[in-house]
Structure formats: C-alpha cells, structure tokens
Input
Amino acid sequence: MAIHDDFVMTIDEDDDTVMIHEEEEVIDDDEAQLKAKKVKGEKKKQKKEQKPTDFDSGFTFANDGGGNVGPVHAWDFTAARGMLKASQTGDVPRVSIDDIIAKKRKENKEKAKANAAKELEDEKLDDEDKVEDAIVEDDDEDLAADGFGGGAEEDEEEEEEEEEENSASDTEEEGVSDGENVEDADRDSDEEEEETESSKAEAERKREYFAPEEENEARDHQAFSSMNLSRPILKGLASLGFVKPTDIQARTIPVALLGKDICGGAVTGSGKTAAFIVPILERLLYRPRQTASTRVLILCPTRELAAQVHSVAVKLGSYTDISFCLCVGGLSVKSQEAELKMKPDVVVATPGRLIDHVRNSTGFGLDSCEILVMDEADRMLEDGFADELGEIIKSCPKSRQTMLFSATMTDNVDQLIRMSLNHPVRLFVDASNQAATRLVQEFVRIRAHREADRSAVLLAMCRKTFKEKVIVFFRSKAAAHQMKILFGLMGLNAAELHGNLTQEQRLESLERFRDGEVDYLLATDLAARGLDIKGIETVINYNMPTQFAQYLHRVGRTARAGRNGRSVTLVGESDRKMLKMAIKSATNSQVKNRVVSPETIQRYKKKIEDLGPQIQDVMREEKEERSIRQAEMEVRKSENLILHSDEIYARPARTWFQTEKDKKKAKEIGKNDHKSKFGIKPEEVKKPEVRKKRKERKKSNNCIITIIEFVC
Ligand SMILES: Nc1ncnc2c1ncn2[C@@H]1O[C@H](COP(=O)(O)OP(=O)(O)OP(=O)(O)O)[C@@H](O)[C@H]1O
Output
C-alpha cells in the first residue's frame, strides 16, 4: 500500500494544508487488469442489488432523518402545468436547442459517412489504377452498394468500444478507493480555527430571545400515531409512505400544534417540508367553515420549490377538505387571481408574485393570515428578498404564528428580529453547517494553470463514471447553456435549468430529469435549494459556490432521507477556504479525492476543441431562431393591442412594489450584508488580492467560453 503524493488536495508547502490521504494499492499491469475487471464486476453487481432501494435498511430513522422509502414521486407539477396551459395563447411551434443539436449531430454523421465513403472510393481508385482495363463506372456502383455508410458506422462503434476500454483503465487511474475515511485528527489539528464563537453577550441575547423547547413537547415520538394527529392527516402521511417521523418532524410537530413560533434547522433531505405542513393541516381541520379565508401562507424562494411544496401539501391533505393555491411567477396571473378569489385555505407563493396579487388582485389580502411559513428562510433574508418580505410581513396580522426553516438556518437574533417573531422556539436538530450523513464528498483539484481543463474533466467523468441521475451545478446561466450544447454534441443526454429559460422549459427540464428521460441536469443555483428528486446519485459542482451555505444545499440534492449519494466538486486554488469548510461539514460522511488522469483530460480537451466550430454553429442557429421567435411575438403583441385595445386600456394599471432598479439596489445591499456576515468588508473587494481571487473565479467560470474562443 502506498500513499499517493498526488492525492494531497491543497497547495503544497502551505502551513494551512488540509491533508486528504488516499491509499492506493500498487499493482502490476496484468494484475491491474484482472483486478479492474473484478472490481467493475463487483461494482455492477452491487449497483444491481442496490438499485431498487439504495437505502440503508439498518438506518436509524429518528436519529438521521430518514425512514421508509416513500413513494416514487411525492410531488408533481400538476398545478403549475395547469396554470401554464391557461397562460399560453396559441404558441407557435418552436425549434428547441435539442432539435438544433440533433440536426448538427445528424449532419456530422452524414459528413462522417461521406468522408468514409470518399476514403474507400479513393482507396479503390488507387487499386484500380494498378489494374489494367478497369471499368470505373461499374466499380463505383459496387462500392456505393456495400461501402457507403457501413464504414462510418463501424468507425463509430470502434470509437465507442475505445471509450469503454478506456473507461475500464481510467476508472482505475481515477484511483478513488472506496471506504477511505479522512482522518479526523489530521483534519482538526491542521485547520485554523475559523468559527467565530458567539460572544457571551450574543449568547445571552439568544437565551432571552428564544423560548425554551419544553421537555414534554419534545418527547421521543417513534410514530406519527403518538402525536395526536387526526385520521385524515395520518391517512395522508400513510399515502406518502411516511410511518415514522424524522427527527425534525418529531420535534417540530408538537410545538407547532401549540401555535408557537419556530425557528427550525435540520440537514438537507431530513423532512422539513412535512414538519411544517402536517401541523398546518391538523390545525386547519379545526377552522371555522362558515366563511372562507386564506389562513396560511407558505413562502419559498423559487417557483419550482413552491410548486413542489404545494404538491406535497396537496398530497398530504388529500383526505381533508383543505384547499390550496399555488401562486408563483411565470404562470398565469389570471388563473391565480380566479383561484385566490375563492379564498383557498393555504397559499404557497414566491414573494414577488404574492405582492403583485396583494396589490392588484381585488378581494385578496393577507389580513386573515394565521400562519406564515418561510421555507429556506435564510435565503429569503438575503439579496432582494428582504424588502419584499418586509412588505409581506406588514400585510399579515401581528397575532399570526410564524415558522422559519432551512438546512442552513440562522439563529442570528438581529436578522430574526426583522421577521417579527414572537419568542420563537429554536429547533436545531443537527449541528449547523453539516452535510447529510450518507453523503460521500469528493474533490477534484484544478491547479491554477489548469483552469481551462474543467470542461474536459467534467466530460471525462460524465462519459466514464457518472452516467445517470447527475445534477451539475454552474455559476452562470451561460456556462450551463454552453455545457448543454457540448453535452448534446458529445451524445450525452442532458437538460438545462436556469433563469434564461421560459417557465415551461424549466418545468419540462425538471420533469424529464425526474422521470429519467435525461441523465444530466445542468443547472444554476436555481435548483440548489429544496428540490427533492428521488434517486439523484451524484451532484457535481463545476465550480465551488461562493457561499458555503449554497454548497451544502447543492450537495444536499443527493443523499436525502437516508439514501446514499455522492458529490464531486472541482476545486480551484481560490476555493481553499470553502474546501476546508466542506471537509469540516463531513462529520459522519466521507471525504475523498478524485484524480482524473492527464491523458484522459488531454483526450477530452482535444474532443472539445474539435467540436468548437460546431458549438459556434449551434449557437448561431439558436440566435437566429430566437430572433424569429421574438419578431413573431412582437407581431402577435401588436395584433392583440389593436384587436383588444378597448379592453386593455379599460383595465386599471397594475402597480409594482419595486421597480427593476429598486430590486437591483436591494440585491446589492443584500450582497454586501452577506459579505460582512462572512467577514468581507465591502471595501475589501477593491483590494488587489480580492480582485485577483474574483478574477480567478471568473476565469474558471468562463473556461468553456475560452475553449470555444480558442478553437474558433
Ligand atoms: N417521515 C418520513 N418518512 C419517510 N420519508 C420521508 C419522511 N419525511 C420526509 N420524507 C421524504 O424525505 C425526503 C426529503 O424531505 P424534504 O424535501 O422535506 O427535506 P428537506 O429537509 O426539506 O430538505 P431540503 O433542506 O433540501 O429542503 C422527501 O423525499 C420526503 O418524501
């Protein structure tokens, strides 16, 4: 056994070095091949056996947040899809990016066939030159009959076979030995103490601010049946396959049923959604029914998460008479208005659209709101959300119950005061900043001068190792989109998810990924929080996120509810601080180092470079298609204005809470808030070393673009 020097993750000769040792057996070539085959066979066998439920049957429910494997999909986008249809007005059929890529691939195949045929033809002609009295025309026909196309197919298959073979050897080269644990002692002793201990004064403030969680409320509930829940709620839980409550559910439900304010935190995938929905439904069963009113408001930071929470609530409440409404941007305002007029008991919303309705939909207000929930509450306190939240809170009665939840929940009193909580109970199940227990975190080192290798590393890993149920996170929409083109041209089945897509495209991508129609979801942080897609095996971070909370949420899309999962993060030199925090977050889970061999990287770099002109072609065609669609939309808009001008101008003008400019400003303030929270003063941004780090990050983010530019 030998320890590989190459496996040391951080910058050499650095005092702060965090050592991640990986032991690798040194084996000779023959033995290596035999062993690789055996390992591959065993892995396949394990995978096959694991496939139906990669769930640890010995897993302790109440300690770990897991439980029975629930139904295949606890949620769907039925409500969102319904509103989508209502908002569509005779859409023109569009050419999707997939169509353009497929066309390009077809062209490539045809070109390859033609080239192969031409080569054969040339060879034949060469041969014929040697033969006297050759009949050129006839021979040409014969050649076409048996040679055209066949050669190209074979070539491609050979290429595929080559891939497979390489795959076997490269898996070994990648040399990630299973079952390796990072030595905690090393980790702890080498790390500088970065956590800022709350001062005594702050601890005192917290003691005063939070209500104590009373012993009898938090008693160990082994089953939902011991929680005094009504039959319709128990039936709803059973229909989703929930038998035992998870830790956060066992602690939250009794306290929430008492109407107390709650500030709750538990790791990703530990069942926080049901933790707040169950007590809400139970309380609503006892509502007065004479007059309808909206009593519960659940706020989420993204449309997709809101749609998911709405769907879970509908399913859990399917044996009750409680009504629900989904109220998010990107979907039909009109149909939402119509639903809100009926005063649904529960509204699940994103803040912007909710404020729009509060201001502009007659007959809808929040004055009857009795329970306000904020999912991903720490996110809602950031960026542009803070002002919108202030506006929403102002519209809700003071006497309401407020519940805040997140895997990275803050207990910072100053921030919470803004939410005007009433002596909240602090229910933090796991130590803060902790990753899920069954998550294996892997890191791939990208050296400073190798930033341009990122795309090749990603493609090599996806082509060879991570072949299905993979989410890849990118820092920018452009990077996710360009990678979608690259994946497509390489024959990898991927969907993209980011803010540049229409709402319909966003839902479609998620559904296709959820249903296994595509193997990869290439996303921005839009998909980082809350989304619960069963069976995600791997999360790849193309870049390390800039906020640690975001890292935890991203990797939390896998290893949920007691299942296994793996994250692979490409770590640049400027990400060392984040890397250390990530390693620290892995108290029970494993940390490993992944190495992709330089030869593999070079081979994939070459492939990407060869595809450069085609990427450009696809992007150009896409741009043209977009311009046509835009022009058609303008024409339709003008026609509508002419046809329905009376009705349009008779409507009262909608008012907006914030202009785009206001929103931008609020976002800037939010960013600065965040920076100061993490010890970066706004003025520090101007310092050269900070500028350099930012530049490096930007460089890694744009490396796909660099490759394309380099080639073209
Ligand atoms: N009591 C339970 N028994 C079995 N499965 C459960 C139970 N509660 C929740 N689950 C399942 O656990 C998974 C994760 O739940 P959920 O999405 O609520 O997690 P979360 O804590 O909100 O995660 P995140 O922090 O990522 O938003 C879901 O698939 C859900 O169906």
Observations:
- The mean pLDDT is 77.
- The radius of gyration is 28 Å.
- Residues 194 and 676 are 15 Å apart (CA to CA).
